[in-house]
Amino acid sequence: MYVIAVYDVGQKRVAKMLKLCRRYLNWIQNSVFEGEISEAKLLELKQEAMMIMDDEDDSLIIFKARQEKWLEKEIVGQERQNLDTFL
Amino acid sequence: MYVIAVYDVGQKRVAKMLKLCRRYLNWIQNSVFEGEISEAKLLELKQEAMMIMDDEDDSLIIFKARQEKWLEKEIVGQERQNLDTFL
């Protein structure tokens, strides 16, 4: 399964969410991640995210596509992804 | 065509990008939008975005799916979308 995950969390929780999402997916921009993941691993990710997130303020949106080929990605402007290897 | 658009732009350009994206798509979270859009309208959106964006610092990622049913959306935590009608 191919997913895109985008979080919107309070400043204090950004670093933890970034670290968590990077363990499961590829970072592509700001708070946006993508990657191939199994249902089981995605469940793990969601459970760990819920431990970090504030129920009332934070959100995590996950878009799932059964196959990556169903999604076409286009980047306008800077491709942040390239910086990831330096971080 | 169904798209998810996510921008990452400098603070000074956030308001303009938000306003632009809202004209074409539905706001779902922070800098994330989704919606059904034609190729022609998407081209317009990209062209207008390029006029706002700083070539060296900003980015706009667009994920395209030919049909919405190919994408399943799941929200963990707060569903920001609901606030949109009040803004």
TrEMBL record, chains A, B:
Alphabetized UniProt keyword annotations: Antiviral defense, Endonuclease, Hydrolase, Magnesium, Metal-binding, Nuclease
CDD domains (alphabetical): Cas2_I_II_III
Top EC category: hydrolase
Highest taxon in the source lineage: Bacteria
Subunit annotation: Homodimer, forms a heterotetramer with a Cas1 homodimer.
GO molecular function: hydrolase activity; metal ion binding; RNA endonuclease activity
Protein name as it appears in the record: CRISPR-associated endoribonuclease Cas2
PANTHER family noted in UniProt: CRISPR-ASSOCIATED ENDORIBONUCLEASE CAS2 (PTHR34405)
Function: CRISPR (clustered regularly interspaced short palindromic repeat), is an adaptive immune system that provides protection against mobile genetic elements (viruses, transposable elements and conjugative plasmids). CRISPR clusters contain sequences complementary to antecedent mobile elements and target invading nucleic acids. CRISPR clusters are transcribed and processed into CRISPR RNA (crRNA). Functions as a ssRNA-specific endoribonuclease. Involved in the integration of spacer DNA into the CRISPR cassette.
Pfam family, one: CRISPR_Cas2
InterPro entries listed in its UniProt record: CRISPR_associated_Cas2, Virulence_VapD/CRISPR_Cas2
Organism listed in the record: Mangrovibacterium marinum
Binding residues annotated for Mg(2+), in chain numbering: D8
EC number(s) recorded for this UniProt protein: 3.1.-.-
Family according to the record: Belongs to the CRISPR-associated endoribonuclease Cas2 protein family.
GO terms of biological process kind: defense response to virus; maintenance of CRISPR repeat elements
